[in-house]
Amino acid sequence: MYVGIDVGTSTVKAAAFDAEGRELAVASRPVDLALHGGFVEQDMDELYGAVVAVLEEVTSRAPDPIELAGLTGQGDGVWLVDAEGRPVRPAASWMDGRAHELVDRWLADGTFEAVFRRTGSAMFPGCPGPLLAWLDSHEPKALDAATAALYCKDMVFQRLTGTGPTTDVSDASMPFLDPRTRTYDNGVVELLGLARRRGLLAPVSDPVATAHTLGEGLPAGTRIANGPYDLPACALGAGVTSPGDGLLIVGTCLASLVATTDLDLAGEPAGLYINTDRPGHWLRAMPAMVGTAALDWVLSTTGVRHEEVDGLLAETPPGANGVRVLPYFAPSGERAPFVEPRLRAELTGVSLESTRADLVRATCEGIGYAARHCLQAAGLTGTLAVCGGGTRSPAWMRLLADVLGRPLRVVEGEVGARGAVLAAAERYGVTLDAEAWTRPTAVVEPDAGRAAYYTEGYEEHLARLAEARGRARA
After folding, report:
1. pLDDT tens by residue, 5-54
2. What distance in Å separates the CA atoms of residue 36 and residue 41, rounded to the nearest whole number?
């Protein structure tokens, strides 16, 4: 038996698998996000408590002892801990927008581009560079009290194992790691004014760190590996490892990933290059800020339940009777395939004749156009896998296939947890059949006529987006 732990933004999950990759037990717990005035924070103790709870539940239901565990979780943000791994303050989430003025300034003075040219990371307000710089100016005592600025999974790993602070090359990719040397670029630390806080950056374990658990959640002595974080873990879990192949994660974050062996730091600064466990192999990532969160907001505002989405998508035609949605709802704007901290969502074409179905379809179409934009920028040339909560809607998957104009390899279940186990098995020398573990559950083909319609709609989307970006900068 193998256990994968995925510490998500809104839900913590654990899944138990047998040696053939069959998902035998899953446990989950929701966790809160505190939103106030552009700040988005999480209680680390609550989050860790949820991890322990799901592990206790899933191990109690597993028919055999656990051989090893793999850990993954949300990326970015700042998770400040003391020497015992305890929180110094609430974690600042990757969705946090407090540092947008810093990013604006760095965009204007060239710092933003200089960092991208060195690391392949296009900073956004919720990544560690801007957040640490903001905290250094506004909450220096919090940084003084901390011994490490971790990422989410690193905080969990430290508390599960009692080891010292550590991270891996995937999490460290944004924004301090040199993708060629796989070590921190001290020049970037200095560019961001953080030289005196350099000691807070956790040591990078390459390959990922391993340890034995202390006995909370998992039996004491269970072997566990720390990483990669959720985006590359999902790529592993979906079998996206060959250059040119891509993955679309339709989750809280709409993440587009393309496997590559080419490191091009000369293009438009956007997204990031995620370092993988194989030197010379990266994931070109375009993690857009809002995915299912945009649809959730529309559903809650209109009083629609999630189980009604498929029926509503069938009630209105492609184009949603003229209703259009630019789905940039995040308080910190957008970060991929461009960085625009002040960009906001727009809803147009609405009249008294518009229906809830029109609003739902327009939102799903808008998210699809955003995904197409990201995948195009990331350099997709091969097959495309798709995973995440959005895959639970067959109608939305058909719509996405049409909007993207290509077949979708749908990989259902706990894909991030699956990838975390595969990474742990590789680290420990445990042989698993990766092809069997990553086999798609379905392939959704696009309809030629609707795909042609959406190709025109995509060009309209890009034009409307350009106008909205102009307004955001005014």
Report:
1. 999 998 999 999 999 999 999 999 999 999 988 899 999 999 999 999 99
2. 9
Task: Report the predicted TM-score, pTM, of the whole model to 2 decimal places.
Answer: 0.91
Measured CA to CA, the distance from residue 424 to residue 237 in angstroms comes to 12
Q: Helix 128-138 crosses helix 100-109 at what angle (to 10 degrees)?
A: 110
Instruction: Give, in order, the Cα–Cα distances in Å from 68 to each of 49, 163, 271, 276.
Output: 20, 17, 33, 21
The structural domains of the chain, ordered by start, are 2-232 (3.30.420.40), 288-410+444-473 (3.30.420.40)
Return the residue matching tokens 């890009």. 462
Determine the Cα–Cα distance for residues 262 and 282; give it in Å rounded to an integer. 8
Of all residues in the chain, what percent are helix, strand and coil, respectively (each to 5)?
Answer: 40, 20, 40
Token representation of residue 253? 């974050």
Cis peptide, bond prior to residue 318, ω within 30 of zero: no
How crowded is residue 268: how many other Cβ atoms within 10 Å of its Cβ? 12
Complete DSSP assignment for 315-336: TS-TTGGG-EEE----TT-B-S
- Cite the DSSP H helix spans in 152-229: 152-161, 186-191
